[in-house]
Amino acid sequence: MPAPKRKPASPANTSQTKLAKLGLRTDMDLVLHLPMRYEDETIVTPIAEAGFMSGSAVQVEGVVTSCDVQFRPRRQLVVTIADETGPLVMRFLNFYGSQTKQLAEGVRVRARGEVRHGFLGAEMVHPTYKPVKEGDPLPSVLTPVYPAGEGLSQAFLRKAIASAMSRIDWRDTLSEQTRAALGLEPFEASVRLLHNPPADVDEHALMERSHPAWTRMKFDELLAQQLSMKRAQATRRNRGATALPRIGELSTAFMQALPFRLTAAQQRVLEEIRRDLKESFPMQRLLQGDVGSGKTVVAALAAAQAIDSGYQAALMAPTEILAEQHFRKIATWMEPLGVRVAWLTGSLKKKEKAEAQARIESGDAHLVIGTHALIQEGVEFAKLGLVIVDEQHRFGVGQRLALRNKGVDGADTVPHQLMMSATPIPRTLAMTYYADLEVSVIDELPPGRTPIVTRIVDQNRRDEVIERVHAAALEGRQVYWVCPLIEESEALQLQTATDTHAVLSAALPDLNVGLVHGRMKPAEKQAVMDAFIGGEVHLLVATTVIEVGVDVPNASLMVIEHAERFGLSQLHQLRGRVGRGSAASVCLLLYQSPLGPVAKQRLMTMRETTDGFEIARRDLEIRGPGEFLGARQSGQAMLRFADLQTDQWLVDKARDLAQALLQSDPATVQAHLERWLGGREEFLRV
Ligand code: ADP
Ligand code: MG
Questions:
Q1: Using only C-alpha atoms, what is the Rg of the chain?
Q2: Shortest-distance Cα residue to atom 19 of ligand 1
Q3: CA 314 / ligand 2 centre spacing (Å)
């Protein structure tokens, strides 16, 4: 059989593909592809003067006096040009044969690059250059340099963008009145200025993105984000959910059987959740509460309401250890009350998995607890009413979406969704990133907790620390020993954990030292955790697998080795494993000196406060919002221009305007979203 003939890709086609790779599909995409910097080609510096400007790029113009391919020390093209003030060498280590013709003797060129002093006097290595005629006018505007993908030249991008600019509809989506009220520049003028700034522009303000033209771009972008999130929220409301109105026998009995009373904060957020669940549009609520604030019981009470109303609930946790712990705890609470709880993770045997799936599908299981196995193919819920995602920031947007879409096939409703997080997000950030979420906050810890004392200890005092561990164990307290994080290599990390375990076992022969790490089989892991929970293991050597959720109240001493390698929120999560009982708890942060300034700042913060919200605030200060939230968080993907830290004042204005426009001006909303998002709004529907 003859091979099917392929149409050869036309150059336009491949460029189109390359543009698409950069996310540039429409004319408006191109127009909003803004330069990352500029080159000043508006002036020509005499060559003799250029020699004194080493370190910064300059433009010179001269006539080629020689053009040779040289072979020493390696093959290179060496071109000499000269103006009235003197000669300059242009050196190309990579070059095409055609360049020797382009740069033949007698050709006049403008070249731009950094001047350095080479063997032959002033020279530029790999300058950009173009042939010109004598007297060719200089550009009057700065030359834009665009973010470009592989194989896309600046010249091509400039042309594509200029041509897109000639085609688009420039109408301003903000009225003159609105612009005046907010102190914003017109759209068209701003865009044109950013692509081709006049030579006398405040270049510093352009680079800092504090120029009014940038402000307008940022504002428009933030407005699009707010509009689209608010609209997604409205769409969700229209989607419909099953109302879960009954707070019945199970809820009541469960509350009565609890060995403690809810704190006022737990009570308050529970009321907020209960109210949402009674509605027939889907709840989408983020429950924030510091480590140990008691989110699990609130989630269980929400599940009870779903079950009381005749529906199923699902709880998804990011790690097997945490899921298992939830399963045990909640099963102990609820099974005596007649609730059937199913357990589903990836590590179950085939038969067990099939069994669990059958119970979920038939509706026999009221409550399903597990890892992301819950969202995998083959899991169908009979009547899923409520989805709970613990430590939601650990999941990607897609995974959260997949769970919410369970039980939606054929139905026109979606389950209610409760997301929990112990990485508190400061209010202002939450409003931008989670503009379409309701946020509940547990701002109080259960009573009787004694605050954790945190000490920073030089790694070379390890022997004293081991002594201290010994003393604590003799008093009947339990200890975590967290091994250093080794980001480069998981194998190395395991090695360190095993080594640490061996060293500590040898140093403390009368203690029972356990080891838990990520590569163990779930059953082994569980056996160790059980022994620790049961008190048989005194000292648990662990990797960061214990970071989230692990709850052993009798553990009251934690040692973290090489604490300087951990991030703030990770340290806070780890430390949260102690201080869960009534014994005074201590966290020892071992560090290797010398400490860098950022690491030092982090450790000081840990010593100064145990308040997760305060820690999050400082973390944000240290790292900036992008890194703080992680790129997978919703909303992040669309902010190219605005910086949530420096542009917070704009966020507030954008939010207010979004609110007003949605109420009174749907045409503007539509136009603005089309301009800024094109077809990409789906991104935010999560
Ligand atoms: P987190 O918010 O970090 O998930 P957990 O839900 O694991 O916290 O709760 C931490 C510990 O506090 C658990 O042992 C839990 O049973 C206990 N707890 C929760 N609420 C209360 C309360 N109101 N009074 C006393 N202890 C509580
Ligand atoms: Mg938890």
A1: 31
A2: 294
A3: 15
Which residue, judged by its Cα, is nearest atom 12 of ligand 1? 294
Residue 649 has pLDDT above 70, yes or no: yes
| Banded pLDDT at 408 (limits 50, 70, 90) | low
Name all residues whose Cβ lies below 6 A of ligand 1: 260-263, 266, 289, 291-297, 422, 446, 551, 553, 580
Ligand lying nearest the CA atom of residue 391: 2
Q: Which residue's CA lies nearest to atom 4 of ligand 1?
A: 295
351-360: long-range contacts at Cβ-Cβ below 8 A with a sequence spacing of 24 or more? 360/312
Residue 619: the pLDDT is 81
CATH code that applies to domain 43-138: 2.40.50.140
Q: Which atom of ligand 1 is nearest to the CA of 263?
A: 23
- Whether omega for the bond prior to residue 318 falls within 30 degrees of 0, making it cis, is no
* Smallest CA separation from ligand 1 atom 14, residue: 551
pTM of the model: 0.68
Query: In testing the pocket of ligand 1, which one of 295, 296, 390 has its CB within 8 Å of the most ligand atoms?
Result: 296
Residue pLDDT, tens place only, 582-611: 788 999 999 999 998 889 999 999 999 988
Token pair, residue 456, equals 């920073």
Q: 284 pLDDT band (50/70/90 cuts)?
A: confident
In the chain, what are the domain boundaries?
43-138, 249-442, 452-609
pLDDT digits over 549-584, tens only? 677 888 999 999 999 988 888 888 889 888 887 788
pLDDT of 173-227, one tens digit each?
A: 999 999 999 999 999 999 999 999 998 999 899 998 999 999 999 999 989 888 8
Does 249-442 match 43-138 at the fold level? Answer: no
Are 142 and 39 in contact by the 8 Å Cβ rule? The answer is yes
Dist. CA 295 → ligand 2 center (Å): 6
493: amino acid identity, one letter: Q
Fold of 249-442: Rossmann fold (3.40.50)
In angstroms, the CA 45 to CA 51 distance is: 10
Architecture of domain 452-609: 3-Layer(aba) Sandwich (3.40)
Q: Whose C-alpha lies nearest to ligand 1, atom 16? A: 294
Rounded to 5 degrees, what angle do the CA atoms 465, 470, 471 make? 95
